[in-house]
Every structure is written in C-alpha cells, then in structure tokens.
Amino acid sequence: MRNYIFILLAILIALSSCKRVVIKVDSIPANTPVGQPIFITGNFNNWDPDDELYILDMASDSNYYYTLPPGFGTVYFKFTRGGWRTVEKGICGDEIDNRSIETALVDTLVCRIESWSELDPLNCPKLVLKIENIPPNTPEDD
Questions:
Q1: Rounded distance between C-alpha atoms, residue 5 and residue 12, angstroms
Q2: Residues 35-61: b if buried by 16+ CB within 10 A, e if exposed
C-alpha cells in the first residue's frame, strides 16, 4: 500500500511539473505606446526585464497572452515594456508588490496593468500634488 501512495505521489508531482499556466492581460493603460512589446519577467527568467523569449503575444481578441514555462511551485512576476524604467505600477503610479501564482492551482491567470512607471497614471481616483519647488527658507520638518 505504501508503495502505491509513493508512486501516485511521484506521478502527481511529475504531471504538475509539466503544467503550463497561461497569463492573460485583458487591460493595459490607454497611454501605452502603440506597438511597444510587453514583457513578463520573474523568478522563471532571473528577473530579466527585456528577455525576448518572454514577450506577450496580442491575440485577435485584443488581449495579451503568455504561457509560462512548465514547472511547479510559486511563480513571482511583473510586466515591463523592456526595462525597469518601464515596469508596471499601481493605478496611481505607486509601487506594487510582485505578482504571484501557485502553478499547481491555476490554469489561466487574468491580469490588468494599471499604469507604467515613466508615464502619468490616467485613472487615479485620488488627487496627486507634485511639488517642484520649495522655498529655501522652509523649515526642514515642514
């Protein structure tokens, strides 16, 4: 009986290691430059933000897709437009945590890119004030 459980467990691990998860991006910011590729980068490609093997494909439904390499465990990733200067950001341009997916639990993960680091956010629901000049006599703690 014990051998059967071990064999079954080994088969399940082998099958899950061959599983390929599809990443679908169904929304990108309207100010994304036309024709510029969107990359996925993560712990599966040593966080290389412009690895040509990891460019998302735009399908006829206007969504972007990428099928991750086979594997198992937790995958961490982000989207870029070819470098860390063009990494995805939150809806108001703020830093976001790495995305993650447990490959054994999901077949397709749907994502939305809300803004890009070097472009002004378009749909921020809060007012952002940008102070460019501070008078020289302003106290340090103010």
A1: 10
A2: eeebbbbbebbeeebebeebebeeeee
pTM for the model stands at 0.76
Assign 134 a pLDDT band (cuts: 50, 70, 90).
confident
Q: Is 31 left (phi over 0), alpha (psi -120 to 50) or beta?
A: alpha
- Residue environment code for 12-24, b if the CB has 16+ CB neighbours within 10 A, otherwise e: eeeeeeeeebebe
- The pair phi, psi for residue 53, each rounded to 5°, is -75, -10
Token pair 């910011």 is at which residue? 29
Residue type, 75: V
Q: Average the pLDDT over each of 23-32, 34-43, 99-108 and give the range with the smallest value.
A: 99-108
